[in-house]
Fold each of these.
Amino acid sequence: MQASVESVAVLEGHEERVWNLAWSPSGSLLASCSGDKTIRIWGKEGENWICKVVLDEGHTRTVRSVFWSPCGKLIAAASFDGTVSIWSRSSGEFECVATLEGHENEVKSASWNAGGTLLATCSRDKSVWIWEVDEDDYECASVLNKHTQDVKKVAWHPHKEILASCSYDDTINLYREDDDDWCCYYTLRGHQSTVWSIAFDTTGDQIVMIKL
């Protein structure tokens, strides 16, 4: 028997293309980001979904992706302006508590590890950065330059401190910490075109990717 899918809401408000969506860990909030340089936070009131907050002061160019921290109190937003903004939620209000700089070009993706102690970012500048997180303090722990082209997505293993990245160079790299630094320990090859996105399953035993 084929399952049916029903549209329950159409969320309108962004003025340009919507690039990415992310559910909060609790599933009660949805974050969206757009070419209009804003992030919108959506929630349900009664039977209706409404825009609860518009975050419009963090970036000067397209916001490419948004990612919630495991605790659900932080959002990382990656932008074409070369920065990543960190938004903290307290009592329903969001505040930009940090702006991460260093990438030389468009930032495409950001991802927290399972413990919320590490944040990975990647960019068109071909690099992957790993940031150590201590409350509102973000320190770059490593800059990884294994890819030869634009890096499209980063994703952490759900249980281990293993990071995956995919790129316009048709490869997927896997990273882990070794002697107080991070290194690429395996490269998945075989695709003949850009790998646009990657995701681990809940066990971490399998990884799926999108290519065109």
Amino acid sequence: MKKLTILGSIHPDAMALAEARPDVEVTVAPGIHLPPDEILAMAEGAHAIGVRNAILRKDLLQQLPDLEIISRHGVGCDSIDVDWMSAHGKPVAIAVGGNDSSVAEHTLAMILTLARDLANQHDGVAAADWAVRQRVHPFDIRGKTLLIVGFGRIGSRVAPLAKAFGMEVIAHDPYVTVNADGVEQVAKLSEGLARADVVTVHTPLNDETRGLIGAQALAAMPPGALLINNARGGICDEASVAEALTSGHLAGHGVDVFDGEPVDPANPLLTAPNTLMTPHSASMTPQGMRAMATIMIQNILDHFDGRLSPTMVFNRKELSL
């Protein structure tokens, strides 16, 4: 009998998938942001952990000797000690394809909302201030240049959506050869930033990308540009972004992810002008939640059955899969 511990409630269809296996004992830890002692108590003896947002570091993982696999309800793994898992030959699986469309659509929604200055227009009308229409500065995105930083599963989904609105699309990704119709690959990030009316970030968070969009990168963007981050908090330096918004260099900022979640009340973005914020919810559509949960569970069952696809393994290179 294999023991599966799920950290956080998941879609009922995924629960049914797990519970249909008579050889798997399933326990669910309620809540999302769980403290280490609760995780340890729930996961004792677990052969697999399915995780949404809980943090799984070395000091906790090394107390779970039976653990074989961690499977993510999503694709980001910055909350997991992947190095420790790799060093012990254990896979970290991700829900490849589960939230691509949801996050890509959220990105376009943010671009359109900021470009049309919808939040300020709504607030004006709600306050019976019809004259707000004279003070806002909406613009068409047709003909504007969109820079996609990171052209993976989600970034590549954003491109055709933006092109459908008539945007010129360029992409920067040092690890991917961009092979998409009508998308120009730029070798240097600075070159792309200098040309972009809108920048959207879709990279993982790691040592290379932390602070990637900081004061220097923001200064390279044209005045009046928009910045979108639906990837991971920490990729964009929040203090620098807030300063660029306050100075007016950035015309708007859409952000779904923060460097520290739930967001700290002292976070400078909370008081920055022209900032559109959502609570790490870009993938939280019914379709996205079902897909991520079922893929997460299927990855665990496939591992138990000895047929987990390497394409679903985040640390496949380290495990030579």
